[in-house]
Amino acid sequence: MINIQAPKGTKDVLPSESFKWHYIERTIREMCALYGASELRTPVIEHTELFLRGVGDTTDIVQKEMYTFNDKGGRSITLKPEGTAGMVRAFLENRLFNEPMPQKLYYLDSPTFRYEKPQAGRLREHHQFGVEVVGSYAPETDAEVILLALSLFRKLGVKDLMLHINSIGCPECRREYNRALREFLGSHLEEMCETCRDRFEKNPMRIIDCKEEKCRAIVKNAPRTIDYLCDDCRRHFEGVKACLDAAKAEYVLDPDIVRGLDYYTGTVFEVISNRIGAQGAVCAGGRYNGLIEELGGPSIPAVGFGLGMERLLAVMENNNAAFPEPDGVTVYFAANGEAPRMKAFELAQTLRSEGVSAEFDHMDRSFKAQFKYANKLGAKYTVALGDEELAAGRVRIKCMSDGTETEADISDLARYFAE
Fold first, then answer.
1. Is 401 left (phi over 0), alpha (psi -120 to 50) or beta?
2. DSSP 3-state assignment of 275?
3. What is the DSSP letter of 119?
4. Which of 141, 326, 387, 401 has a CA 20 to 30 Å removed from the CA of 51?
5. Phi and psi at residue 109, to the nearest 5°
6. How far apart are CA 200 and CA 194, in angstroms?
């Protein structure tokens, strides 16, 4: 017997929910247009090497969560676990660095795959929206990216959010920080999980991001990146904070944020909600000045963020955010008899060609049942068609919201509803 259940960690979006997605997508596109960002779409699959080099082979995503397989040509292929690496690959392959800078790009409803325990708003297959601004190192750019995300949440009616920011520095100040971190962690090495013991030499900062309780307890008093910033990174971070202050954006300085991806440098941030359980980040991002060069391109700075659409939808519902009602059909033709049914079919097609949504009975319902179905569809108007109406060439049009009726010639219906 065929298993008709969706795989664990995946979810269907039914018509009763899809209109909410449409509203969020429309609002996102409008917000990105206000900030001058253009959409870039990338494939669901990428070469595995892209994530090994870009995301980092000591990260949880690469070590534990990627869906990776060999295709029939023996190539190692990975289902996209995050959006930024693919965006950078597309930026390089299509030589967008030859275009005027900065390049403001976004991706929307990008399918993303991670093999992890499903949690509130985070599934094994989920969908991401992200913004990437490439080419500018100005602190104003970091702040603008953050403010775009905050403006989107405000527009969607999401409240009780707090912005947490930190700086994890550049490779220069990171070396000094890693030295101090190894000194602190050295005496606790045997107490850590196996993954963190492996990270100790390769990338000790990843230990800060470990989810194991025993490791979290150890790093609670560990050195923090903010105390090891070089002069340039410190000035840049102070500039970001000054911009956020100028925009009257509230934030918390959170030295525990290091982000779970190796490509981040400098500013990192998370937008936290207290309404979706322990894993409360609804948006996260930061600066990644070395990623483009790491993937074989020129040295170009960049900053961006990503958020999960399912998680955004969950936090909106927990905020009782208002969704517009789904659009019902404009006109429903209720037909009684064979000739009227054919006329209803013809009129529906005519109205649709004029941009007016129209529907008629497909199920051989009774005349009375057709009107009940029109109500269920949310039809704004109903038009009754019988032999008498066909003979007279006129119909009565009923407005379903207030019950008022008007008459019109059958031959004039397309113009009537188009107006």
1. alpha
2. coil
3. B
4. 141
5. 55, 35
6. 10
Encode 268-278: b = buried (16+ Cβ within 10 Å), e = exposed: bbbbbbebbee
- Cα–Cα distance measured from residue 413 to residue 71, given in angstroms and rounded to the nearest whole number: 56
Q: How far is CA 157 from CA 121, 154, 230, in A?
A: 17, 5, 39
pLDDT digits (tens, 9 = 90+) for 33-88: 999 999 999 999 999 999 998 888 767 788 889 999 999 999 999 999 999 999 99
Asked if residues 257 and 165 have their Cβ atoms less than 8 Å apart, the reply is yes
Q: Residue 315: what are its φ and ψ, rounded to 5°?
A: -70, -30
Give the rounded distance of the alpha carbon of 343 from its chain centre.
44
Residues 242-259: tens digit of each pLDDT: 999 999 999 999 988 887
Query: Which two tokens mark 51?
Result: 């994530």
The two tokens of residue 2 are 């065929």
Tell me the C-alpha distance between 131 and 31, whole Å.
11
Q: What is the rounded CA–CA span in Å between residue 384 and residue 367? A: 9
Distance CA 308, CA 28 (A): 13
The partner residues of 163 in beta bridges, in order of sequence, read 251, 271
* Sign of the torsion angle spanned by Cα atoms 148, 154, 155, 156: positive
Please give the Cα distance from 54 to 132 (Å, whole number): 15
- Name the residue among 23, 39, 22 with its Cα closest to residue 90: 39
Rounded to a whole number, what is the distance in angstroms from the first to the last CA of the chain? 54
Quick check: 290 pLDDT over 70? yes
Q: State the Cα–Cα distance between residues 84 and 42, nearest whole angstrom.
A: 10
Tokens representing residue 318 in the block = 């927990």
Strand 358-360, strand 331-335: pairing = parallel
Domains of the chain: 15-170+230-318 (3.30.930.10), 331-418 (3.40.50.800)
